[in-house]
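Annex B. Sample input.
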Amino acid sequence: MLLQGQLVRTLTLRAATLLIVSSVIGSGVYKKVAPMSDQLGAPEWVLLAWALAGFISLCGALSNAEIAGMLADAGGEYAYFRHIYGRFMAFLWGWTTFAVIKTSAIAGIAYVFSQSLNALVPLPRLPQSIEQIELWGIFQPFDNSGVKAATMVLILALTFLNTRGLRGGAGLSAWISRLVLASLLLLVVAGLGWGGGSWANLQTPASTWTVRPGWDFDFIKALFAALLAAFWAYEGWNTVGFLGAEIKEPNRNLPLALFSGMLLIIGVYVAVNFTYLYVLPIDQIIAGFKNQNEIAAVAVVRHFAGAAGAAVLSVLILITTLGCTNATVLMPPRVYYAMARDGLFFPAAARIHPRYHTPNAALWIQGIWACVLVLSGSFDQLTDMLIFAAFFFYGATAFGVFVLRRREPDTPRPYRVWGYPLVPALFVLFCAALVVITCFSHPREAALGVGLMLTGVPLYFWWTRAKH
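Annex B, continued. Sample output.
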């Protein structure tokens, strides 16, 4: 008979805040300024897009924090949705998290790590005849085999690390977060002090930029596309809620961690991207994006620190994506554990290791599915589906603030969202707009996202019937 352990409250406020930082700051801070510059064409609009995306994400985090303070438990939004909307909505969110949102994030971030590693040390590959094998005329599972193999090894290694105890995985993320924040601060100081940039770079639009009479439709589309790129960089702020059963004083510390972590991330993103646009003309940043052969941050550092500086930054990108992958591996299995505990997921996921107090089976289920997504190789499509699906549920969480204020006005709330009802209302409206616009602008990705959500419906009824 297997012994059953239990989740233990070991995370402090500082550790939870650092986990938010490590789960958000990944490849986006180094790469997304280029596509955003290409879309908007003017430095001031790029910086505004970063700040606006951060503000919208902060509105979501503040709304999430009120719910988190009331309902802090293992599983984050799963526990919230179960309480607010019932079992089916909770299951639908949890299944979508497993099927695409978090597993595709793990696959994509780990893949960036392996690509960066391959740029420094070329990885071995299989013969071309094997790499060109196709399945069903769609997938080439062995294409770019060296990078994919390294990606899967990284995912499985981090999965193993996190089965050995929460403290080890959280400790690695905290250490990496401190290193990344210190390095980004150094990049800002060095770039502004010795980067050879000028204010003229911030005031000069791209050569392809045209003056518009106002907020016309083309500009709104460009701003929306730039915001989508920025949202990928901000993605992951909600995942610390999955650890609600393992945070000390969660009703107090979880909202504080969300708020302080997001403020820190917004400040870092705006400062770093200000530095990029101060050091290099926007045309140069766009040229690197068009050629698809340059990471914007590496180009900036190479400009004032040479090849050695660029190599150091490439190593930092490796470390950053390692930390972000680890944080993304660490937290979602608590969702699958909570679902399995309710009889709405594979039963093995409900087991907690008696010694390490971790949901080991849930971790391995997640790791294996993430590796399958690595083999599919459709990371760009997965990213589009990820954002579409995530913002559907983000909006539902924020709307829950209104539901609970009306349904449970006397329930203790350690934290009440600032700016109520304006802040959650703005976030809900933006999420609705993003979902609708994506349905029209990216109908295939939206349809696939909805399809993946619905794949769990038969399992829901099977598990529900099996339980009764």
